[in-house]
Amino acid sequence: MIRTLARTPLLWPVIALIALLALNALLTPGFLSVRVQDGHLYGSVIDILRNGAPTLLVALGMTLVIASRGIDLSVGAVVAISGALACSHIAAADDPAGVGTVFSALGIALLVSAALGLWNGMLVAALGIQPIIATLVLMTAGRGIALFVTEGQIITVTSPPFKVLGAGYFLGLPVAILVSLAVFVLIGLLTRRTALGTLLEAVGINPEASRLAGVRSRTIVFAIYVFCALCAGVAGLMIASNISAADANNAGLWIEMDAILAVVIGGTSLLGGRYSLTGTVLGALIIQTLTTTVYTVGIRPEVTLVFKSLVVVSVVLLQSAKFRALFGRRRTRPPVPSAAVDTPAAAPDRPKVAQR
Questions:
Q1: What's the pTM?
Q2: In this structure, are residues 78 and 61 in contact, taking their beta carbons and an 8 Å threshold?
Q3: Residue 216 maps to a domain
Q4: CATH code at 242?
Q5: I need a labelling partner for 122 at 20 to 30 A (CA). Which of 17, 218, 235, 294 fits?
Q6: Residue 110 and residue 231: Cα distance in Å, rounded?
Q7: Is residue 337 situated within a structural domain?
Q8: Of 151, 78, 149, residue with least CA distance to 119
Q9: What pLDDT digit, counting tens, does each position of 9-67 carry?
Q10: Residue 202 is part of which domain span?
Q11: What is the DSSP string of 88-146?
Q12: What distance in Å separates the CA atoms of residue 134 and residue 113, rounded to the nearest whole number?
């Protein structure tokens, strides 16, 4: 039974998350407590879920991209562009607090995000450019576009309706948590209740064979990159809404790395085909909990990347079948019989030669 549990892909991410939560509980009394105030839930665990929602959204979109044997390095730039467009539109409006103004800002940001995803999809699917190169173009230019939109300034807005997305509550829970949960359920239904999941795995395992089998692999790749960009766009709106400002320099900085780490921790194969949405959720929670732990301990934020790397290496090694097999082989190596070591084998009798 223990060996069966050890082979479960999600076992080690769950253990890592529990260990981090236990460490925080030891360092901070009352860390796991959740209180109700004015009908809303508050607590460190709620903060982890809310602050990790943007990373989770980006990681969910990244999961589908990686499952198709691709990668998207431009999600951080899309996050910055989305927040910059929304805040610029609201700040320039005659009625920043108007619901119509907020909805139009959200629509503009998401439309541009979808267009950026379509650009990535065109480079990868239509032109056949390697995904890491195709998305690196937008990663490099995208933050410059965000700086152009904000004119290099931090744009602050005062709009209560816009504040709801990142810092508001609904039915006692943060709206950011509910939005990320809704996206997770939507992707789960599309990939598990329709043929999309099977087609996605086929494209990730062998794109050429799937195309010859009649699968519209290019269309699937297009759609996946658009969806990933939309997830990044929503994440950018969450971040801008939470702080009521657009900071093109820092919004979404390194979020592409956090998303990729979350996907890898969750057990999705970088070679494509095999993926786990539940594992991605666990990976995103591990990344956010680790960030919270670093702040709790008092370590400089710049060192967070080092700890993230150590956690990722540890979890990935524990998930590796070859590593577990090597470790198990060393522990269960059969003992050498003592007779074979102490007593040499007797030489066979040599036939006697008759003397004349």
A1: 0.85
A2: no
A3: yes
A4: 1.10.3470
A5: 235
A6: 9
A7: no
A8: 78
A9: 788 889 989 999 999 999 888 888 899 888 889 999 999 999 999 999 999 999 999 99
A10: 8-319
A11: HHHHHSS-TT-HHHHHHHHHHHHHHHHHHHHHHHIIIIIS---HHHHHHHHHHHHHHHH
A12: 16
